[in-house]
Design goal:
Blueprint (H helix, E strand, L loop, with lengths): L1 E3 L3 H11 L6 E3 L2 H10 L4 E5 L7 H11 L4 E5 L6 H8 L8
Helix pairs in contact: 2-3
Length: 97
């Protein structure tokens, strides 16, 4: 699993939730996430929406290209605006209403 999130608290939370079941690689910026997606083999990519050096949508676009069979999810601590629609167009589905 690749987790891309610039927030240390968010990374720690996701690690606590998923580490018992998954090997997790972390990236802290959109650019790092895109590099990891292009170089790695991940079954799941979970990315924050708003980050420095590229957005979560940029990461999803790269994951859709380089990891066509991976499960993709976009998360955010800010209310959705254009991101929710864009995430569906880039292969991610909603995790919660």
């Amino acid at each position: 699993m690749l987790v891309v999130d610039d927030d240390d608290g968010g990374r720690k939370l996701l690690q606590a939730v998923f580490a018992p079941e998954f090997d997790i690689t972390f990236a802290e910026t959109g650019r790092q996430g895109i590099v990891a997606v292009a170089a790695g083999a991940y079954d799941i990519v979970l990315t924050d929406y708003s980050m420095p050096e590229g957005s979560g949508l940029d990461v999803l676009r790269a994951a859709h290209k380089f990891l066509p069979g991976a499960g993709l999810a976009l998360v955010s601590s800010t209310p959705p605006r254009r991101g929710a629609r864009g995430s569906r167009q880039n292969g991610s589905g909603p995790l919660a209403p």
